[in-house]
Amino acid sequence: KKQSAKHSSIAEYPKRVDAYVMRYLFTFLHNQEGFVAHPYLDGFNVAIGCGLNVRDWKDFKELDFTDKNGKLLTPAQKLAYYKQILRDRQVILSNLKGKDIAQALHKQYNLAKFKMLFKYEATKPSLDRALKKRIDACMKSVKTKIGTEAYYNLPPEAQVAILDMEFNLGSSFMLSHIGKRKNIRSAYPKFKAAVMRCDFASMASECKRGGIGNRRNTAVQQLFLKCGQMRFPKYGTALKDFEQKKQVITRLASTTR
Fold first, then answer.
1. Angle value at C-alpha 149, between 141 and 10, nearest 5 degrees
2. What is the pLDDT of residues 59-107, one digit of tens each?
3. Which one, of 253, 250, 247, 200, lies nearest residue 225 by Cα?
4. Which residues in 84-113 are b (16+ Cβ under 10 Å) and which e?
5. How far is CA 194 from CA 47, 145, 149, 188, 189, in A?
């Protein structure tokens, strides 16, 4: 019975970790991305909330929008708003042709063109749901790319750092094979190799991303360096490692209730 209880506790570990990492990354993204309730342009993309890319109508229709009186938009109103945003986006990008788009948008170039983007705001509960759903998708994607065992071999803080990169870089991050038109640097092959051998110092040196602020790059780097100072038993190893693993389970249990 004692051995069975140990096995049961170890089996609980992935669920405890996932709950902890979900909360940690949710807060991390709010701190690093900020929060904007209305749609805005992030480079070529329409984004909302904490840097959440609105990839298509399916993403958009899951959000609840309100008018200036706090009344929820009807599905028809929401669809009309989405179509108008896409039209305005095209006009804005056409006006910015030949300019540094990121720099021009940060300077709020031709602000009048953003009028429709700012018209309605999404509710906080619907944005929180969408963000948690995107984080869950990032978890599944990373587990597929490196394998479930390799994922849980990493301390939770390292998982948070990798998931932040997945959230920011998208589907090409850590892929073994990418199309010819893709930039090979977006796959981060040296970083992925460091992940597979749990080399946190190399992860810290290879994790820097272009196009985001130094503050966020440094925060992710520090998470990896912190993991390099931990003694962390491998997931799924012999029961002799259980006492070490139990300390992590206890810590996570206290933060996920």
1. 120
2. 999 999 999 899 999 999 999 999 998 988 887 777 766 566 655 555 5
3. 200
4. ebeebbeebbeebeeeebeeebeeeeeeeb
5. 31, 14, 15, 10, 9
Length of the chain, please? 257
Residues 6+ apart with CB under 8 A from 94: none
What's the CA gap between 57 and 81, in Å, rounded?
11
Give the separation between CA 217 and CA 251, rounded to whole angstroms: 26
Structure token pair of residue 216? 């966020």
Tell which residue, 111, 63, 116, has the closest CA to residue 87.
116
Residues 36/114, Cβ–Cβ less than 8 Å: no
User: Tell me, what DSSP letter sits at residue 72?
Assistant: B
Q: Of 194, 131, 187, nearest to 158 (Cα)?
A: 194
